[in-house]
Design brief:
With about 550 residues, the chain is an alpha/beta fold. The chain is built from 15 helices and 25 strands.
Amino acid sequence: MAEKLKIIPLGGLDEIGKNITVLEYGKDMIVVDCGVGFPDEEMYGVDLVIPDFTYLVQNAKKLRGMFITHGHEDHIGSIPYCMQQVKCPIHGTAMTNGLIRLKLEEHHLADSVQLVTHKPGDVVKAGCFSVEFIHVNHSIADAVAFAIHTPVGTVVMTGDFKIDPTAEGGMTDLARLGELGKQGVLALLCDSTNVEREGYTPSENLVAESLDRQFKNCDQRLIVTTFASNMHRIQAVLTTAHRYGRKVAVTGRSMENMLKVAQELGYLHVPAGTIVELAAIKSLPKNKVVIVSTGSQGENMSALYRMAFSTHRQVEIQPGDRIIISASAIPGNEKAISRIINELYRKGADVVYEKSEGLHVSGHACQEELKIIHALCKPKFFIPVHGEQRHLQLHARLAKQMGMAPKNILVGEIGTVFELTGKTCKINGTVTAGKVYVDGTGVGDVGSVVLRDRKHLAQDGMIVVCLNLSGQDGSILSGPDIITRGFVYVKESEELMDELRGVAMEAVERCQRKRVRDWSTIKSAIKNDLSGYLFKTTKRNPMILPIITEL
């Protein structure tokens, strides 16, 4: 029986971020991208969300390589966690590998993981797969798509992309995609992030023009925040600052790391004498200073957040400062960004952040660009990726509008196994996939039960009931003492505390009358009685933890 090509997304479907896709044929397997997701407001205390690598660990002997489309966190952030469990060469472009190397160094893995650098046009052999690097435009330098040549046909994976005819480094290589389409593309896996937007994504050059307008005739200090990875945007800031005779200082760890890598690789051209140390700006006139900062998404530990709330060691927001937020809000971050903007206004700053100012353009293709890719590739089968359910369904609808047969369009979810031959494509079961939570140094030790408890504590607080019982006859020696956290202010609720002690005492005495000596049964009785009483009197449902000590 002939082998079939399996395409298995372990992340990036029904979600934004956490992109990772497995391609498997016979005894060979490769992985495309390995990103993180970011916690939502329900994930109390969680720092990062990474894919479940169980399937990779189970098939580690088959793994021939990992191929990375570009250096954004949602495509490279999980690599250190994956490399702690499996080992294989990682293939990427120069900028991408520079950022991956920083991550591996942070996790003390740089010496044990092989990084192989390629450029667009290169073809890499990995088992039965040949992976071709194709230049695309995105909001980070050195982004690529992949044409993966397999025994049953060619699979094109666009990665994150847009079509920008004026981009530095050249436009997305449509000619090569067109050649592949003429030769025959078995399946297309295409970015769905901006499928809701009509038309074309504007060029990055428009942002450079908008920045020039903001710098021109401004006699105050300028603070610009943007995504650290957007080298085109940072280049525009440096060039514009030099044009108007301003010095540039950088604050924020990720921004500093990104600039270091980009300069080393020649992706950032810094005019001589433009960048200065942050400490040096105090001795310069306000109209000669630009500060480039992290914090465009309202992150709590970012440089802009610390400036806004007066905890930054070197920069204090002053009345008249012009703060330019050159980024759009990632869904879910709107409140955090609004909080920072309000605080900046409170300090007398002038904040420029409206979309109408033209200070940000997306790095993802809109509908007309997606149609161009479909028309060029002419795939036999289409699997939309990189998006929530609505993005995937709308992209499927767009493919139908392009004339594709509905039976050749497959929408899946993480863990779905797509099986392809040269003539067929179908869904055949699932593999283990999901979310693994990173909390501090702990990976996977916070699960759904822990998150449920954290949510319960956050919403209703907790009550601890402490009492000492006699080991001989089970009588109460001391207590019950009531300790609360996040429930009520004890000093103003003495009467309620006395009533809770009475309820707990009655529960214990009832167990004694029934000659119950099993501590777990007594704890359940205390918990049930207190829970019922509290809901009846306060309409609240705090977590109740009885603690019994035997003396």
